[in-house]
Amino acid sequence: MKKIKTYSYLKKYREESGFSSQDISAVIGISGSALSKIEQGLIQPSIEVILSYHYILDVPIPSLFKQHIKESLTQNLKHAKERREYLLDQKASPFIYKRLDMIDIIINRLTTLIEDHV
Predict the structure, then answer these.
(1) Number of domains in the chain
(2) Which residue segment(s) compose the domain that 15 sits in?
(3) Where is each HTH cro/C1-type domain found (predicted)?
(4) Residue 97 domain-assigned?
(5) 3-state SS of the chain?
(6) Which is it for the CA torsion 36, 42, 43, 45, positive or negative?
(7) CB 3.0–4.6 Å: which of 23, 37, 94, 107 could bond 42 by disulfide?
(8) Is 104 part of any domain?
(9) Mean pLDDT throughout 81-108?
């Protein structure tokens, strides 16, 4: 089975809290096997599982996504710039300049967020 973007730090948080995988999986409502696969990076956790780590183990939300934020922001920025180029080619539409302004706002936000997470 191919490993995905790792969530092994979820296991670290669980172990540091002193909870067993059986107890956490029961409280979250998933099988112990599913939790083990998530913690090994074999399957991706649902948002409900990630939020459960936040609620149950009191792990800050940014810590739960620490390895994924910059990658996600970078991908969004890339797609926003591609969209801007596409819209520049479509100048015939009467609303294109408003849409370009909105895309520029998104690009600026994403650029700032990436700089903040470096």
Answers:
(1) 2
(2) 8-64
(3) 10-64
(4) yes
(5) CCCCCCCHHHHHHHHHHCCCHHHHHHHHCCCHHHHHHHHHCCCCCCHHHHHHHHHHHCCCHHHHCCCCHHHHHHHHHHHHHHHHHHHHCCCCCCCHHHHHHHHHHHHHHHHHHHHHCC
(6) positive
(7) 37
(8) yes
(9) 88
Residue 112: what residue type?
T
Give per-residue pLDDT as tens, 7-18: 778 899 999 999
Distances in Å between the alpha carbon of 60 and those of 3, 26, 36, 105? Answer: 25, 21, 21, 28
- Tell me whether residue 3 is in a domain: no
Output the six-digit token pair for 24: 């956490």
User: What's the one-letter identity of residue 87?
Assistant: L
Give the C-alpha separation, 78 to 20, whole Å: 41
